[in-house]
Amino acid sequence: MSEEILVNASPTETRVALVENGMLQEVYLERTQRKGYVGKIFKGRVVRVLPGMQAAFVDIGLERAGFIHASDISPLNEDGMEQRDSEIEDITSILREGQSLVVQVVKDPIGTKGARLTTHLSVSGRQLVYMPYTQHLGISTRIEDDNERERLKGIVQSKVEELASEQHAGGFIIRTVADGVSADEICADIPFLYRLWSDLEDKIATAKAPAVIYEDLPLFQRTLRDFVKAHIEKVRVDSREVLGKMNEFADKYAPEIRQRLEHYPGERPIFELYGIEDEIQRALEIKVSLKSGGYLIIEQTEAMTTVDVNTGAFVGHRNLEETIFKTNLEAATAIARQLRLRNLGGIIIIDFIDMKDEEHQRQVLRTLEKMMERDHAKTSITGVSELGLVEMTRKRTRESLGQIMCEPCSVCQGRGTLKSAETVCYQIFREILREARAYDNKKYLVLASQTVIERLLDEESANVADLEEFIGCTIQFQVESIYSQEQYDIVLV
Q1: Strand pairing partners for 443?
Q2: pLDDT over 90, % of the chain
Q3: Containing H/E element for 405?
Q4: Which of 191, 214, 237 is the last residue of a domain?
Q5: 50-60, pLDDT tens digit by residue?
Q6: What is the mean pLDDT of residues 72-87?
Q7: Which terminus, N or C, of the chain has the lesser number of Cβ atoms within 10 Å?
């Protein structure tokens, strides 16, 4: 399977596309005026403690205060390490309003919710994640080979012991990208992370809340750190300036990937050449067409995302059960791709077409699980419920593609539907009746959209005449071109 990464950089926005076998699988956006906050460390101030929720709100300098739960707060012992065996009886015993608190963002502000925070701090290197307040040594679950896991743990333990005389503390997590990496490359991360944390400690001591203490690398450098693995053939960049910075980063931290970085000099935009722009546009739509003629309906709400599978025009060649099975198999692959592409997270409910054959159900579920294995985000599939629904979760740390690129419709306010012209006409009739009872008036002027006025003068003309006779007043109409279908005004003339 061929994989490559495309980087489209401009002064206002950086976009990164992960392409597998010529098909877009994931896209990441970072805007200069609206960068994400995940991974940033802040010195904040507690503004409100909620004993009933065992949580608190912390001002970190953003539009909305961040939220931290008691389970995400780590009381420290005399050595500055987490007291893992201690129980937090009440959040009021560890936090008070006005108190300074060093926190890290684990989830970006999404919708009306502020950022989700933790005091379990960490900073990332190329191969390792450093956790200054714990002695834990962990390893990515995506590294499955037992011998490789033992090798990597041994390398890190030996280096940590070697540097113990310098009074460094803390623990590490070995990242997925460390799989197969030499001991020298892994060990190089450890003193670098120690130095980085030492500098941050100095900054924490002098900063006044709210203040930014640490922020992660820009998107184009995080791409090299997190996504460029052995199977990535090329990283094509359309900006010489950004390519230069990526080359510097690669020379310092990942020289083995330097030769895979190349400049795209073409006049035609790189995302347009590879069809990425069209794919992004389709990823913002509710309906996803399948090659068989079936389709998906994907709807995202604040609470969850639902995916409905339909056969559409696909009728199969043998029988209905075969049609349903083939549509569901194709849908399972498409759903896995759409979840990655749209960056949908949280609770996800999938309504596959009902299958009577239990073996067909198992095969569809296995296909979904297999395709989700390639996802960078952590996922969990619980199986088929009694109602025939597949329930799953996908870790959500950043806004979805739709939330980044779109905003609620100013006409329908995000509902996705409008009141019909007929409904608006009947609202107008009711309001005129209320006005007629309240005021002694002889004429009314209705201001509304073209569609509503046309209906009032056509299909509803008889009802208008009856209403005029009933209230003893004249009703006139005027089109307001700037009004949406739901907007209207009734003026007493």
Answers
A1: 474
A2: 62
A3: helix 401-405
A4: 214
A5: 999 999 999 99
A6: 60
A7: N
Q: How many residues does the chain have?
A: 493
For the chain, the domain total comes to 4
Side chain identity, residue 478: Q
Q: How far apart are CA 114 and CA 127, in angstroms?
A: 30
Check whether residue 357 and residue 399 sit in a common domain.
Answer: yes
Q: Could you tell me the two tokens for 110?
A: 């999404």
User: In the predicted model, what is the mean pLDDT of residues 67-96?
Assistant: 72
Residue 416 lies in a domain: no
* Alpha carbons within 13 A on the beta-carbon side of 232: 24
Same domain, 63 and 207: yes
The beta-strand segments (E) located in 186-284 are: 211-214, 232-237, 261-263
Give counts: helices (H), strands (E), the chain. Answer: 12, 24
Arithmetic mean of pLDDT over the chain:
89
Q: Is 135 exposed, middle or buried (0-12, 13-18, 19+ CB in 10 A)?
A: middle
Alpha carbon distance 455, 157 (integer Å)? 78
The residues near 153 (Cβ < 8 Å, ≥ 6 apart) are: 137, 139, 174
Least confident of 9-13, 35-39, 119-123: 35-39
> Does the residue 331 lie in any domain?
yes
* Residue 8 CB-half CA count within 13 A: 21
pTM of the model: 0.77
Residues 18 and 68 in one domain: no
pLDDT score recorded for residue 144: 86
- Of 350, 378, 405, which residue sits at a domain end? 405
Domain range enclosing 390:
284-405
Give residue-wise pLDDT tens across range 164-201: 766 677 899 999 888 888 898 888 889 889 988 999 99
